[in-house]
Design brief:
CATH topology: Hypothetical protein af1432
Shape: globular
Structural class: mainly alpha
CATH architecture: Orthogonal Bundle
Largest sheet: none
Strand content: under 5%
Number of domains: 1
Helix content: 55-70%
Bound molecules: fe (ii) ion
CATH superfamily: Hypothetical protein af1432
């Protein structure tokens, strides 16, 4: 189970009500309730972890918005695939992996702030099997839309916090195809699979019980 350490309910809710966020979050809710709930939890957990680092208010807002919008690309994925209760075959896995690319595409197309696009779009790039980039070492190269994914050291940290919150939520909550993992297993998986700054892992694990 994941619990938050900072009482910032109204702040989180107010970001979730911003027109730029609700425009897409409402569509995600209509398309797939589980993805909507996951997006809210990830936004809240990412902001809570970031609070331990004493972020500037603007960075906290940016990270929270990116958290709400990080799985926008799942709007392109079929509900059957999102709800599959079986192990996905290779073709289906590739299809699911495309959601990170679609997040970048859709948010860029709609004119979202490039920092939000970069942080949201890189949420699967701090793992041993990164995507949309296939190779961790190419993360800094120009991407398909001609920009670096994360433009500064500060955004790299925000991007890593979001990736970690996303991973923790996926491991700690029940999904159609799996039960929640116990904390010790979650910690072990994070140390094996998270390729961002390892000192962030204990900050996430403080919130898992
Ligand atoms: Fe994702
Ligand atoms: Fe996610």
């Amino acid at each position: 189970m994941v619990h938050l350490l900072y009482p910032q309910r109204e702040f989180l809710a107010s970001i979730g009500r911003e027109p730029d966020v609700t425009a897409i979050l409402g569509k995600i809710r209509q398309h797939h309730l589980g993805t909507y709930q996951h997006s809210c939890r990830v936004a809240h957990l990412a902001a809570d972890i970031a609070m331990d680092l004493g972020p500037a208010e603007g960075d906290l807002c940016l990270l929270t918005r990116a958290g709400y919008l990080h799985d926008t690309g799942k709007l392109i994925e079929s509900v059957d695939l999102l709800d599959a209760r079986r192990k996905l075959d290779n073709y289906e896995k590739e299809e699911m992996h495309l959601h990170a690319f679609w997040t970048i595409f859709l948010l860029t197309q709609r004119g979202y702030n490039p920092s939000i696009v970069g942080i949201a779009g890189s949420h699967h790039e701090w793992q041993s099997d990164p995507y949309p980039r296939k190779n961790t070492s190419s993360r800094e190269e120009p991407n398909v839309i001609g920009k670096r994914r994360v433009e500064s050291e500060k955004h790299r940290t925000l991007s890593q916090i979001l990736a970690l919150a996303d991973h923790v939520d996926a491991l700690a909550t029940k999904r159609a195809y799996k039960d929640p993992f116990p904390p010790a297993t979650i910690e072990q998986i994070l140390y094996q699979d998270f390729t961002g700054e390892q000192s962030l892992i204990p900050l996430a694990m403080k919130r898992v019980s």
